[in-house]
Amino acid sequence: MTEAHSSALDRRFRLSERGTSVRTEVLAGFTTFLTMAYIVLVNPAILGQAGLPVASVASATCFAAAFASILMGLVANTPLALAPGMGLNAYFSFTVVQQMGVPWPIALGCVFISGVAFLILTLTGVRQLIVSVIPSHLFGAVAGGIGLFIGFIGLKDAGIVVANPATFVGLGPVTQPGPALALFGLVVIGTLSVWNVRAAMLIGIVLTTLAAWVFGQVAPPTEPYSLAALTGTAFKLDIPGVFGLTGSHGLGLLEILFVFLFVDLFDNIGTLVAVTKRAGLMDGAGRIPGLNRILMTDAVATMVGAMAGTSTVTSYVESAAGVQAGGRTGLTAVVTGVLFLATMFVAPYAQLVPLAATAPALVVVGGLMLLPLTEVDWEDPMAAIPAFLTVAMIPLTFSIANGLAFGITAHALLKLLKGQATRADWFLFTLAALFVVRFAWMAAA
Predict the structure, then answer these.
(1) Which of 381, 426, 432 is nearest to 404 (CA)?
(2) How large is the angle between the packed helices 381-396 and 400-417, nearest 10 degrees?
């Protein structure tokens, strides 16, 4: 790179001001990409179970991650990379499409509308009101509950946990090829992770896929390789369907929009705090510079991702790996985005990866998401009871919405019964009342 180019990048991304260099930022971008690249294989595996074309979702995943990360780097100048979020893709596939019976084009329309709502809430300042009424222990509980949800899905996909008529769930036939391959992948990913190998999950998925091919456990692809694979889901979202013009799903669609919006909000706040604090970008008052630009970028990314054909796009905590490698500016995110864009050329090959290879990654990701549970004061019943209900209900009812509903309602009720309710809590009690109405509606349905 010439000195002129380096100088231009320095001015554009304020490299010298933040004590970094082009070389450091590029290496940080590669590091972030390697820690996130597993999503190119895992996201199609999850959404494919909802009927979306796997090759198309792989291309959409790459495109959405590339667009969002590059936009974040250019607009917010923050070393924060984005991609379709874990947890929300599982909710999209298993709850919205498979359990609620919402066609996936309408589900994509819900994702788009949730992005619009996120943008409006950010521009109007309502986002701050929402965050202010949710106690910190519920943030941690939602993250932990989603972690258990993802881990449970991984164990189910692997065949390690199976249905049991006597105990609801039980141990599967772990000596059979599918579960055995998944356990092999889990060992590989676990071993590489404890040795701090950045691409541990990606390597584990690839090695398990190769083992599955060797032992004849991979079916031949049903879709040909083509860069045109993106068209299988691009612009297939059904926004009129969200408003009941092409289908009727009652209050369920409001619930879907609520969950997409809230979980995306929780994910963003938690990730932003973790990454910006590690990068030293927070100011003395603990505020995140350019927060509105970051959140607006996230909202736009979700809308573009829905148009491309994938579930909610959100900030990735794996960005902390790039920060650890020295990334301090948006150039790190831009490099990560460019690498995702390049990956589009091979993304449709994701259809060759079996569930046994992606399931171990879900288990590991789910386990890593339990860390926020340490933020809950488990000795305080005011915090412990709502947090436990949130954590337990998400995986046990296969619904993030149910976990949110039980947690927020329990928090509001305990606050009221303890005599701590004030006029400032009107929004909290409004949410709790809406959840009670939801429970009554579900019981009557």
Answers:
(1) 432
(2) 160
Q: Which two tokens stand for residue 33?
A: 């990409």
Q: Collect all residues with Cβ–Cβ distance below 8 Å to 1 and sequence separation of at least 6.
A: 22
Contact 318, 35 (CB under 8 A): yes
Helices (H), 195-280: 200-214, 239-242, 252-279
Would you state the structure tokens that stand for residue 36, as one six-digit string? 């996130």
Of 64, 61, 345, residue with least CA distance to 228:
345
Bridge partners for 314 per DSSP: 83
User: Residue with structure tokens 């949800």?
Assistant: 149
The whole-angstrom separation of Cα 72 and Cα 117 is: 19
Where are the extended beta strands (E) located within 224-274? none
∠ at Cα 244 (243, 249), nearest 5°?
110
> Can you list the alpha helix ranges (DSSP code H) found in 159-251?
177-194, 200-214, 239-242
Among 21, 136, 137, 59, residue whose Cα is nearest residue 385: 137
Q: Name beta bridge partners: 82.
A: 315
Contacts of 255 (CB under 8 A, 6+ apart): 401, 438
User: What string of pLDDT tens digits covers the 445 residues of the chain?
Assistant: 555 556 788 888 988 888 888 989 999 998 889 888 889 989 999 999 999 998 899 999 999 999 999 999 999 998 999 999 888 898 899 989 998 889 999 999 999 999 999 899 888 877 666 766 778 788 788 888 888 988 898 899 899 999 998 899 999 999 999 999 999 999 999 999 999 887 888 899 889 999 998 888 776 655 555 666 668 898 999 998 888 755 555 556 777 887 888 778 777 776 776 676 666 766 655 566 777 888 899 999 999 999 999 999 998 878 877 887 788 899 999 999 999 999 988 877 777 788 888 888 889 888 887 888 998 999 999 999 999 999 999 889 887 778 888 999 999 999 999 998 888 788 889 888 888 887 777 666 5
CA gap 239, 111 in Å, rounded? 9
Give, in degrees to the nearest 5, the angle at Cα 213 between 210 and 219.
130
Residue of 365, 361, 364, 360 whose CA lies nearest to 182: 360
Whole-structure pTM over 0.85, yes or no?
no
Structure-token pair, residue 398: 């296969």
Q: Return phi, psi of residue 342, to 5°.
A: -65, -30
